[in-house]
Design brief:
Length: about 70
């Protein structure tokens, strides 16, 4: 609820303002850490599969998730 209040009352209404607000609140770091944990788990599962075009694609997509900027 605390994170939504500035959006509802209009004190934060631009993309940059929202990103800054979420960054200050620690939300972005939390989300990045969670994404890294999920990616690590996914890559560990994929490592056990036999090599195939599907595995290659899934690995590439999984790694892209943590490399992308937005």
């Amino acid at each position: 609820e605390q994170l939504l209040a500035p959006l509802r009352n209009g004190s934060v209404n631009t993309r940059d303002g929202i990103a800054r607000y979420l960054g200050d609140a620690g939300s972005l770091e939390y989300a990045r850490d969670a994404a890294h944990r999920h990616v690590s788990s996914a890559l560990a599962v994929l490592a056990d599969l036999p090599d195939s075009p599907a595995k290659t694609s899934l690995t590439a997509m999984t790694e892209f998730i943590i490399r992308r900027e937005h």
